[in-house]
UniProtKB/TrEMBL annotation:
Biological source species: Liquidambar formosana (Formosan gum)
Annotated protein name in UniProt: Annexin
Transmembrane feature ranges: none
Binding-site residues for Ca(2+) 3, renumbered to this chain: E303
Residues annotated for Ca(2+) 1 binding in this entry: G25, G27, E67, I259, K261, G263, A301, T304
GO CC terms, sorted: cytoplasm; plasma membrane
Domain of life: Eukaryota
Domain statement: A pair of annexin repeats may form one binding site for calcium and phospholipid.
């Protein structure tokens, strides 16, 4: 369930006018911006952007970029974008930073339709396909390039169009559990078989296969995939499986690592809160509390400050 508290029956024109007022004068009224945009869903935000441009012949996103700064500006920028366009931006930044985690999140947690929309948005924004930019990342400085096997996995994940239903084939789950076990045995990974199964099967089918694997071998597949921490492929495969089978647990770990590391990882923290506030952030908050015995709201309030803190807490469901 979402944590975003949406104010209904609002006027996009009135919101646009209020945002214009908040950006004028001697100082920006950040509280007014949070009060408005922090309580509008994606459709409402899009209508506000349209109304603002019609009224003032100016892009609201660019105006906010010029008015705000720091972590708050980056968070607000990503929040106000259309979700598919936001995914495109996140993917592009991830490629530049060699952060395959974000590519896996977008590929494995999104629905097939959401992934397709993100790929289309990427092409419109950057005039290249997401696959092209992933492939280009293997060139140049070898220290920054992803391995060929990791690239194979990432391209397979972003180009897959999984079946989105709940039907499963028990016989296929049994046979592919055996295939995965044979591929992983003795750490001599048959990467092609693992990549094929992880990237093509529906979430329900893959869950059935993974459950069969655990029942047959008394160990989870993610534990069997543990290897050299420097092995990007095995780490990426584990991550993909976690994203597909238990995204809430995955996001809880991302948040825990972002908050507990020396110096908060604001980029990861913002990414989870912003992308999940309209979806399942309530369940992620519950998982966080269960794992850490402290509420996510409290942890965020302790590790952040100012307008950035106020904005994240608003998206987390804090009214005032």
């Amino acid at each position: 369930m979402a944590t975003l508290i949406v104010h209904e029956n609002t006027s996009p024109v009135e919101d646009a006018e209020a945002l214009r007022k908040a950006c004028q004068g001697w100082g920006t009224d950040e509280k007014a911006i949070i009060r408005i945009l922090g309580h509008r869903n994606a459709t409402q935000r899009q209508l506000i952007r349209q109304a603002y441009e019609e009224l003032y012949q100016e892009d609201l996103v660019k105006r906010l970029e010029s008015e705000l700064s720091g972590d708050f500006e980056r968070a607000m920028y990503r929040w106000i974008l259309d979700p598919a366009d936001r995914d495109a931006v996140l993917a592009n930044v991830a490629i530049k930073k060699s952060d395959y985690r974000v590519i896996i999140e977008i590929s494995c947690i999104h629905s097939p339709e959401e992934l397709l929309a993100a790929r289309r948005a990427y092409r419109i924004r950057y005039k290249r396909s997401l696959e092209e930019d992933l492939a280009a990342h293997t060139t140049g400085d070898i220290r920054k390039a992803w391995s060929w096997l990791l690239l194979q996995l990432l391209v397979a994940l972003v180009t897959a169009y999984r079946y989105g239903g709940d039907e499963i084939n028990a016989r296929l789950a049994n046979s592919e559990a055996d295939i995965l076990h044979d591929a992983i045995k003795d750490k001599a990974f048959n990467h092609e078989e693992i990549i094929r199964i992880v990237s093509t099967r529906s979430k329900a089918q893959l869950m059935a296969t993974i459950n069969r694997y655990k029942d047959d071998h008394d160990i989870s597949i993610t534990k069997n995939l543990l290897g050299d921490p420097a092995d990007e492929l095995s780490s990426a495969l584990r991550m993909a499986i976690r994203c597909i089978t238990d995204s809430e647990k995955y996001y809880e770990k991302v948040l825990r690592n972002a908050i507990n590391k020396a110096g908060t990882d604001e980029d990861a923290l913002s990414r989870v809160v912003i992308t999940r506030a309209e979806k399942d952030l309530k369940e992620i908050k519950e998982a966080y509390y269960k794992r850490n015995s402290v509420t996510l709201d409290h942890a965020v309030a302790k590790e952040t400050s100012g307008d950035y803190k106020a904005f994240l807490l608003t998206l987390l469901g804090k009214e005032n």
